[in-house]
Design brief:
- By secondary structure, the chain is of the alpha+beta class.
- It is built from 5 helices and 8 strands.
């Protein structure tokens, strides 16, 4: 029976999550100002801007705040779709191409000829057809590299740039005495 690893997920780095988090935060501020303006007394500047000036706008400020909030929430979800998932049958690389187009690539263990861990940011696979596939950046690259290295040693997949030897793998999996 072949080695089947546990499922693990590695999400996108913080630098990829930051723009959508800032967008979501600004949408929350705008929604909060709209609610505050609607609840304020009639003499305040925020009530005047939110409620009284609303009749002159093409789109109401409440509709604008809802659209802004929903689109920022969608941006958070879209950012969360990125990353790498290791499952028992292989590796799944998830990324978002342009604005809305998700990209999902699955690599089964028999397809992978070699795992390349040489680079500082990207991890690559040499595939059976001679092509090279790069995994997207993840928040914890070292943990992903370590997990892939353990799987490669257990499944006899060559690793270039790895840190473990087969003896170290046996020592880690040996039960304590």
């Amino acid at each position: 029976m072949t080695y089947r690893p546990q499922e693990s997920v590695f999400g996108p780095p913080w630098s990829a999550r930051l723009p959508s988090a800032l967008y979501f935060g600004s949408a929350l501020v705008v929604a909060g100002l709209v609610v505050l303006g609607e609840q304020s007394t009639s003499g305040t500047w925020i009530f005047h801007y939110v409620v009284e000036e609303d009749v002159r706008r093409v789109m109401s400020i409440r509709t604008f705040a809802i659209i802004l909030f929903v689109s920022s929430l969608a941006s958070l979800v879209r950012t969360g779709m990125r990353g790498v998932r290791i499952y028992p049958d292989g590796v799944e690389a998830r990324d978002v191409l342009n604005f809305l187009v998700p990209k999902l690539r699955r690599y089964r263990w028999p397809q992978i000829e070699q795992i390349i861990l040489d680079g500082t940011t990207h991890i690559a696979f040499e595939l059976w057809d001679g092509s090279r596939a790069y995994l997207p950046e993840v928040s914890d690259r070292d943990a992903l590299a370590s997990a892939l290295e353990h799987i490669a040693l257990a499944r006899a997949i060559p690793v270039r740039g790895g840190r473990l030897s087969p003896d170290e793998l046996e020592d880690e999996e040996a039960p304590p005495e």
